[in-house]
Automatic annotation (TrEMBL):
Transmembrane segments: none
Family designation: Belongs to the UPF0065 (bug) family.
InterPro entries in alphabetical order: BUG, Bug_dom1
Species per Swiss-Prot/TrEMBL record: Neoroseomonas soli
Name of the molecule in the record: Tripartite tricarboxylate transporter substrate binding protein
């Protein structure tokens, strides 16, 4: 492998030195870009993993929240970052969904990144806001039919956006899409009753659901949530199998990051994912641990991109970023 030159500032003077070998990295804080604002599920997952990884590395991991454009802004910044191991990307399925739907490809979801590890998956919960009626999916649909309503999504081009449009179409509702810059802002608007419904992750919205401030109606994916045994799967409730689409949560580095750094980072990621305490903490926020190593995670990203492109084409799903 060719050794790369990394510019390092010392006392205001830029000095060149070879890229750090595995045993030397890191010798300063590492930055993880999260392409959504604080308070959402991606931010929570990133912080859950950053804490033990920082302890293993012996250096702080700084979470850099860069929301906007369905995750494109933060992800593009990560793709263009110096591939020296000091900038990484903690992201979710919007990594592949947003470019397809927004018709903007400021980065290549596969070629511009080196996967480090997949954390797992989580179903999205269709929730109704306090401004609506109906405690079950069928009752909500009956109440909503014929009304001019809106549904929220945590990002334009996200799976939550697609699920909302699919739900509106298949239930024969008249709902307008409202996009937010992350799940935190969307949840706040939901609690205020400003949108009728939205697809949420339990990691961010579980507290509001348990407090009965928003009502869970149905789940995407193929597996029920143990914490919501009474909430049915959409695909078991008369809706199409398109709601079975599953994505990913994981950590990536810019392409061309030196292999020794990738090896150490991926090894630590795997060790933390194998820790029973990590699995317990994930399950507590209704996240299903489903670790994949770098090669398998790359194939999973390719699969998600292929399946999502087919869904977006079928829906003619396109929005302005």
């Amino acid at each position: 492998m060719h050794r790369r030159e990394v510019l390092v500032a010392t006392a205001g003077v830029a000095l060149a030195r070879p890229a750090l070998a595995q045993g030397q990295w890191p010798d300063r804080p590492v930055r993880w870009i999260v392409p959504f604002p604080p308070g959402g599920s991606t931010d929570l997952w990133a912080r859950l993993m950053a804490e033990p990884m920082s302890a293993e590395l012996g250096q702080p991991i700084v979470i850099d929240n860069r929301g906007g454009a369905g995750g494109l802004i933060g992800t593009e910044a990560a793709a263009r970052a110096t591939p020296d191991g000091y900038t990484m990307l903690f992201t979710i399925t919007t990594h592949v969904t947003s470019p397809v739907v927004l018709r903007r490809f400021p980065y290549d979801p596969v070629a511009d990144f080196a996967p480090i590890g997949k954390l797992g998956v989580t179903p999205l919960v269709l929730c109704a806001s306090p401004s609506t009626q109906g405690d079950t999916l069928q009752d909500f649909v009956a109440w909503a039919r014929g009304k001019d309503l809106s549904y929220g999504s945590y990002a334009p081009g996200s799976s939550g956006h697609a699920y909302g449009q699919m739900f509106s179409d298949e239930a024969r509702l008249n709902m307008t899409h409202v996009a937010y810059r992350g799940e935190g802002p969307m949840l706040q608007d939901m609690l205020a009753g400003n949108v009728a419904c939205a697809f949420h992750s339990m990691a961010a919205s579980g507290g509001a659901i348990r407090a009965r401030r928003i009502r869970p109606l149905a789940l995407s994916g193929t597996r029920p949530l143990p914490s919501l045994p009474e909430v049915p799967l959409l695909q078991d409730s008369g809706f199409s199998r398109r709601f079975a689409f599953s994505g990913f949560i994981g950590l990536l580095a810019p392409a061309r990051t030196p292999q020794p750094i990738l090896d150490r980072a991926s090894g630590l990621f795997r060790r933390i994912m194998e820790n029973p305490d990590t699995r317990r903490r994930l399950l507590e926020i209704d996240t299903i641990p489903a670790y994949l190593g770098p090669a398998e995670f790359r194939e999973d990203i390719i699969r998600s991109l292929r399946e999502w492109t087919a869904i977006a084409t079928e829906l003619n799903l396109s929005v302005q970023g």
